[in-house]
Each structure stands twice: as C-alpha cells, then as structure tokens.
Amino acid sequence: MNIPSELKYTKDHEWVKVEGDVITIGITDFAQSELGDIVYVEVETVDETLDAEEVFGTVEAVKTVSDLFLPVSGEIIEFNESLEDEPEKVNSDPYGEGWMVKVKVSDASQLESLLSAEAYKELISA
Asked: Nearest CA to 120 among 29, 59, 21, 57?
C-alpha cells in the first residue's frame, strides 16, 4: 500500500498536496483499490467556492459511486480533464496523473486538521 509521507490525508481516503495556498486533491491508493476499476470521474464544481466537507464530485467504479468531499474550504480552480477520457489513471497512478482537482484554500488553518501519513496508516489498518 503506497502512502507518500509528504502528503496529508483525510478520513474519507483523499490525499492532499499543499503548495502555498493551492492544494491538489485525489483519492488514496487504498481508496482506489477498495473501489475497484474506476470508470468515470465527475466534477462539476470548477470555479465554485465550497465549504470543508461539501461534495465536490463523484467517482464511479464498476460496482459503486462514491462522493468526493472537499477537505478544506476553498475555490475549485482546476479539474484534471484527462480523467474524462482516462478515468483509469486514478487506479494506475492515484498520487500522480490520477489527481482530481486543485483548490485555492480559503482558510489555511483548516489544513492542520488533516491526517499525517502515519495517522492515515493507523486509520486504514484499524
């Protein structure tokens, strides 16, 4: 199970890469393996400002559909449009080409509530 130590994580199995006031969000290796083959990623919230824990999109796998929750408040500034044609990138490269959205963070203090790699490992092994 790949859990890069430089990233932050959520209890909803999303990863967060912090670069100044912009974060990149995707789902973790654990999440994509639990979902199975991903066939569709939908994000219709680009240019919208959402609160933490609001749904910003969905991931559709062969057997299920899962909501994607924004870990911190902010404006969705970019969607990884390559996922429209190749949603399987989420399975093959969840931390690289399988990223989902970039968000301009409204309240940087909310980033402190995210899980470290160690805390996320404990969550999924519990």
From this structure: 29
What would the pLDDT profile of 52-102 be if each residue is shown by its tens digit?
999 999 999 998 999 999 999 999 999 999 999 999 999 999 999 999 999
CB 104 within 8 A of CB 21: yes
Neighbours of 66 (CB within 10 A): 17
* DSSP per-residue string spanning the chain: ----TTSEE-TTSEEEEEETTEEEEEE-HHHHHHH-SEEEEE---TT-EE-TT-EEEEEEESS-EEEEE-SS-EEEEEE-THHHH-TTHHHH-TTTTT--EEEEES-GGGGGGSBPHHHHHHHHH-
CATH architecture of the domain 8-107 equals: Beta Barrel (2.40)
pTM over 0.90: yes
